[in-house]
Amino acid sequence: MARGAKKLSHIGTRGEAHMVDVSAKPATARVAVAEGRVLMQAKTLDIVRKGDAKKGDVLGTARIAGIMAAKRTHELIPLCHPLLLSQIDVDVTPDVKLPGIRVTARVKVSGQTGVEMEALTAVSVACLTIYDMVKAVDRGMRIEGIRLLEKSGGRSGHFRVRE
């Protein structure tokens, strides 16, 4: 391993995957913010904004899907710890400049491990829900830019994307 390189915490000495033992870590306030976007044709965005999608309220459904996904991240991502999340905010905002929809998720916990995966899962599933609800109108939509924007709490401290 290169000098100064970080060791992967989910890989054992023989290369086997394992769940990290966080029992000795103190519980701290932890927050993670992630984002993503669904790019679509302007006419598709108009349908979503007007509430005319055949499957119903796209924005509200995507928001709920993101919240539900954050709560179930440990069931979807191997080796994630189940967490008692204290707050999940999912914002689903139409953006005519894209054209498309911007999705952000902010997840908070007081615990022994971070919530980055929960925020990223919330964004991913909200974006997939948007795609599913309007794919009949626009199969050429693109989901892109899913990334962690910020995290705080824990031993590794604060991280924020620099543009």
Descriptive account of the structure:
The chain has 163 residues and is an alpha+beta fold. The chain is 28% helix and 28% strand. The protein is built from four helices and five strands. The chain has helices at residues 42-50, 58-71, 73-76, 116-134, and strands at 28-39, 87-95, 100-111, 142-152, 159-160. It has a five-stranded antiparallel sheet with strand order 2-3-1-4-5. A hairpin with a 6-residue loop joins strand 4 and strand 5 (159-160). Helix 2 (58-71) runs antiparallel to helix 4 (116-134). The longest helix is centred in the last third of the chain and has 19 residues, at 116-134. The radius of gyration is 18 Å and the shape is elongated. The chain starts with 27 loop residues before the first strand and ends with a strand.
Compact summary:
This protein has four helices and five strands; from the N terminus they run E-H-H-H-E-E-H-E-E. By secondary structure, the chain is an alpha+beta fold. It has a five-stranded antiparallel sheet.
Structural topology:
Layout: E1 28-39, H1 42-50, H2 58-71, H3 73-76, E2 87-95, E3 100-111, H4 116-134, E4 142-152, E5 159-160
